[in-house]
């Protein structure tokens, strides 16, 4: 199943994607609908009998919005693909433990939304196509075996980064938390959508139709269960927490000369089994 949040006829709502072309609204799915998608993730009430047979609203009639505002900032995992580490530095930079940073939840932007260039503060805005994990159940001090049961689902995230600010401040938060610098969505695919929980996801990023990134989560240094287990040590993960799992090679900085985002660019990230997240780069007016 794939969930989404949307705006329709002056009202914010959420619902279930039907056959990739319509959405069944929450009021047709539940006897007592949760207030939003985050509330659903937190409570996960049962669907009404026959709910999936309900008629949906065509996607052409709605505006897809950010899935929800998470309870905490987005958790990011850096340097999680060996080839990405190499394009950014050297073999000595490959981490032996997960590299963790956070990204402001206020930076979230929806599918088809605008990525602001922030040309007043950066000249090196870069894209990073990533698989994001959505936590569905609170937990701390989890083992890798326990971690999978705490996953609600998966979505697509673009970890937009100002490379010059990353160097200037010698940390990630400022460079990765500019307004409109965290596209996410358009759907959250539940873990049950994927019959084989160990099957890798393919990740592909296009800029103006040109392939820049093509990778698979099979190449990650740290697996999803390992990341969740490590993050939960002495730290409670909450329903709705978002974990961005790292980006494969092919980012703009990895080219010579670098190929950073500019006004008018279109960035489309496709992840197998989830969909495509598309955003448009625009100078501030």
UniProtKB/TrEMBL annotation:
Residues 74-281 form the Fumarylacetoacetase-like C-terminal domain. It comes from the Bacteria. Belongs to the FAH family. Pfam families: FAA_hydrolase. GO terms for biological process: carboxylic acid metabolic process. This is Fumarylacetoacetase-like C-terminal domain-containing protein. GO terms for molecular function: acetylpyruvate hydrolase activity; isomerase activity; metal ion binding. The keyword Metal-binding applies.
């Amino acid at each position: 199943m794939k969930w989404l949040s949307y705006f329709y006829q002056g009202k914010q709502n959420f619902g279930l994607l039907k056959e990739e072309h319509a959405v069944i609204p929450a009021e047709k799915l539940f006897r007592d609908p949760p207030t939003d998608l985050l509330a659903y993730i937190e409570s996960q009430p049962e669907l009404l009998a026959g709910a999936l047979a309900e008629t949906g609203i065509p996607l052409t009639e709605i505006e897809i919005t950010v899935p929800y505002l998470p309870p905490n900032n987005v958790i990011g995992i850096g340097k999680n693909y060996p080839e990405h580490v190499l394009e950014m530095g050297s073999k000595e930079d490959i981490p032996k433990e997960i590299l963790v940073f956070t990204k402001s939840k206020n930076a979230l932007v929806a599918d088809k939304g605008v990525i602001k260039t922030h040309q007043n503060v950066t000249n090196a805005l870069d894209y990073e196509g990533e698989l994001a994990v959505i936590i569905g159940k609170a937990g701390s001090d989890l083992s890798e075996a326990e971690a999978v049961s705490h996953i609600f689902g998966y979505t697509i995230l673009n970890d937009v980064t100002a490379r010059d600010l990353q160097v200037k401040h010698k940390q990630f938060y400022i460079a990765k938390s500019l307004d409109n610098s965290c596209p996410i969505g358009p759907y959250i695919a539940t873990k049950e959508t994927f019959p084989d929980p160990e099957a890798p996801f393919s990740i592909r990023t296009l800029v103006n139709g040109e392939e820049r990134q093509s990778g698979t989560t099979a190449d990650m240094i740290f697996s999803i269960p390992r990341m969740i287990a490590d993050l939960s040590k002495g730290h409670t993960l909450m329903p709705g927490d978002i974990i961005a799992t790292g980006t494969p090679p092919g980012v703009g900085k990895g080219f010579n000369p670098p190929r950073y985002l500019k006004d008018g660019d279109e960035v489309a990230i496709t992840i197998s089994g989830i969909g495509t997240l598309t955003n448009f780069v625009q100078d501030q007016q």
